[in-house]
Structures are given as C-alpha cells and as structure tokens.
Amino acid sequence: MKVLVIGGGAREHALCRSLSLDPAVTALHCAPGNAGIAEVAELHPVDAVDGAAVAALAGELGADLVVVGPEAPLVAGVADAVRAAGIPVFGPSGAAAQLEGSKAFAKDVMAGAGVPTARSYVCTTPEEVAEALDAFGAPYVVKDDGLAAGKGVVVTDDLQTAVRHAAACERVVIEEYLDGPEVSLFAITDGETVLPLQPAQDFKRALDGDQGPNTGGMGAYSPLPWADPKLVDEVLETVLQPTVDEMRRRGTPFSGLLYAGLAITSRGVRVIEFNARFGDPETQVVLARLRTPLAGILMAAATGNLADLEPLRWSDDAAVTVVVASHNYPGTPRTGDPITGLDEVAAQDAPHAYVLHAGTRREGEQVVSAGGRVLSVTATGADLTEARERAYTAVGRIRLDGSQHRTDIAAKAAEGR
Predict the structure, then answer these.
(1) What is the rounded distance in angstroms from the CA atom of residue 232 to the CA atom of residue 102?
(2) Among 279, 171, 159, 166, CA closest to 216
(3) Which residues, at least 6 apart from 341, have a Cβ–Cβ distance to it below 8 Å?
(4) Alpha carbon of 117 to those of 148, 268, 282: distances in Å?
(5) pLDDT tens string 356-384
(6) CB under 8 Å to 125, separation ≥6 — which residues?
(7) What confidence tens digit (pLDDT) does each residue in 242-261 have?
(8) Is the pLDDT of residue 1 over 90?
C-alpha cells in the first residue's frame, strides 16, 4: 500500500512513524513534511490547502491512501478533491469538517444529537458579548468561532481579558465554565461505524501547574489510571455515535477522525469541543500504545469497511510526550535556532524514547527550529512514572537556545492523583 500523508507537524510525524512500521505499507510519502519526517518518508512540496494540487500529487505517486492531517486542509475541502479523483482518503469532507471549523455549527449538531455540552451563546456584537458574559459569570470561557490553531479559546477570571478576546473575533461562542478534569478521546469512523481509541489527557497551559497562556498543547499522557473504566463506552454511546449519526442524518456524513475534548464534571461528561482530525500532542501518546497496524484501520475508514475490522490491540505500557517549544511561545516564536542532541536520544534512549518533529527544518547538515512547538519527545514505560523518567531524560539531551518545556507532564497521574 502506497500512503501519502498531508501535513508537517508532530502529529504527522507520529502518523508517519506508525505507518513506517506497518508491513502493509510499501511506500510512504509526506507533503510538505519536516526534517524528522524525512527520516521515515519521502517528502514532496505542496500547498496543503490546495485540493487540486494534493489530488494531483496523490495521482502522480499512485497513492492507494491519502491521510489529511491538519485542520486547515480539511476545512478547505482537500479531502473532497482527493475523493473526486477516485483515491481513498482518510479525513472528512469540507462540509463535515465544520464540526471543527465552526464552534457554532458544532453546538448546533450537538443540540440535534442530544450530546451533553456546556450551555452557550453565539455572539456577534459587543452587546451580545456583554450579556452572555454577565449571564454565565467568571470563569469566562470565550471561543473564536473559526479555526485558530488551538489558540482561539480564552478561559479567564478577568472580565476585560474576556471582552478583548471577543472583540478580536468576528463571531464568538461564550459558554459556561465546565469544572473537572479534561480528557481527549479519538474515534475513527467511516460515517456509520465508530471505533474509539484509548483516552489521553493533554496540557494546554504554557507553564507548570497549569499556569500561563493557552497553547496548542505542551504534553500529554495515556492511559488515564484515574478515569472510570466505563468512560470510553459511555462516551461512545452518549457522544460519538450520536454525533456521527446526526451528521449522516444531515446529509454531511463524517468519515475520518472525530476528536472529542471532554470535561468530566460534577454533573457528568460534557463535550468541550470537537476536532475533525488527530489532535496534537495526544496523537503522539495514543499511537505509541496502538499495536494494531495503522494503515489497515485508516483504509477501512476511508473505504467504509470499519465494521469488518477485528478489535484493536493495545499495549499495556504507558506513554508520555513532552513538547519542547521555542523562545517566546505561544507568542511570536523565535525560529532558526540550531537543535542538537537528537542523535544522542536516538543512540541512548531508543526504542523506549524518541523525538517527533513539529516546527523544524533542515539547513545543510543542521536541524533548526521553524515554529512555536518544535519537538515532541515521546516515551513509553511499564507505568507513567517510568515513561515520564524516560521522556525527561531524553528532553535533557536536547539543546535548543531559549527553549522551554513543562516539567510536570503526567506528574499528578503518576502519583495516583
């Protein structure tokens, strides 16, 4: 099977790594990729949001399957263009990807499906914003209605901060604050059958102790020893399957990866948001634990054959990923700084720990930073304590001037909290 992966972040590196280990994959391509992905896949230049260009590249390569990683190409309808060319594609249509592309649309779908979520208002004027913020009170939750690369949400006790964020967006969803821990649950679907993966937890805040500004995610771990063993079955029954059924009923069937961001509140499970693709950094830890070869799962979803798959196999090991971010992230990041120590991790920590590239590029013989989140250092172990130790040992070998990372990823869970 020849596979083409679209994207160039740590999520796509994790996908490519898993696909490269699948004996069914005879050729692996990625466009545009990054310096790390180049070690496991052949890279090709492409404008990832240009559906015609992506479809043409897939045709030239004779791809049997195209996997669209990031949200922007999905919302732009890249999967539609590939499907129109007669090539199986893992990823929802542009219409179905509005589950992530519009928070207001997602709320409407959840209402139609009876999915439990936070009460909310969609606001387009300062007056509506003021009324909604007053109705819910602090902490204020203000979400940009459109795509914002994981940084469109502000949760704050400061009213002026909430008002400023709302004013910077054309349309916002303001909702009640959901208490309790957050959980990420991925599900692969072909539009009818829904196959949940293992849950993970990520860390959105930039600094230790969940302090600092919101980011795209500074680390993650799986499994969740504190979670109810029935959680996945409950979410499948009350959230994932009803949402997929509702999308099909509306004439916009959702095929690909449905990500549910959940809050385990005092009143039960509530959906915070949906994404239409693998989430970063949770993908890194979920795929690290998956034992069933990945290509067959993605192809089954792309061709409507998920119901025929055998149950997924999972490792009992724990996995932890720690994001190494550039200077000033999540503000305007500094780029172009050399990264060293990657060879040391490969030589001394593999196979239990490895580095997935996000914002990197190659300049001659050097790998340099090229974005805000630069690397995801991922490790597995018999439990979270061992996985954490291995991940942070590997992080300690990497040198990137001005870089930052959290030191408390999975710490509470490893201590049994």
Answers:
(1) 25
(2) 279
(3) 397, 398, 399
(4) 21, 10, 21
(5) 999 999 999 999 999 999 999 999 999 99
(6) none
(7) 999 999 999 999 999 999 99
(8) yes
